[in-house]
């Protein structure tokens, strides 16, 4: 589980936690504000802190849908404006969920889904049935090698025995420029 820390001066600069009450992901909101104000992140590959976990922790009051909504809005605010078009890597449940969660303007930037699942690729497209648009949007589903970056990747890491990571590496892309992880 990742954790982070900062100086008291930086904390004061970013602003206090949102103490909006139970169900507010105050640490996530603070982190996003940290990034908006130019804060960085440095990865340390060793344990620096040990958490005590218990069933009464406040973290359990934050709904997954609340976190999802904040993550999507941050993606739309900070990353998607840099791209005129993009591909969602995963034509499955998470990729389609991301597409449906985007604003109409961001949905129009999605030029394709990509995947490795032959059944999804053979289907050829994803039709957004809940759309109010007529005709309903039909987004192509391509093999990842036929798709064009940039990608928003909705595939969890370390679940495919390294196959996904190998596929991504084979494209020689730069994280942050050609793709972002959203999983």
TrEMBL record:
InterPro entries, alphabetized: Nucleotide-diphossugar_trans
Xref: SUPFAM superfamilies: Nucleotide-diphospho-sugar transferases
Molecular function via GO: glycosyltransferase activity
PANTHER family: GLYCOSYLTRANSFERASE, UDP-GLCNAC:BETAGAL BETA-1,3-N-ACETYLGLUCOSAMINYLTRANSFERASE-LIKE PROTEIN 1
Protein name per Swiss-Prot or TrEMBL: UDP-GlcNAc:betaGal beta-1,3-N-acetylglucosaminyltransferase like 1
Record organism: Colobus angolensis palliatus
Taxonomic lineage: Eukaryota, Metazoa, Chordata, Craniata, Vertebrata
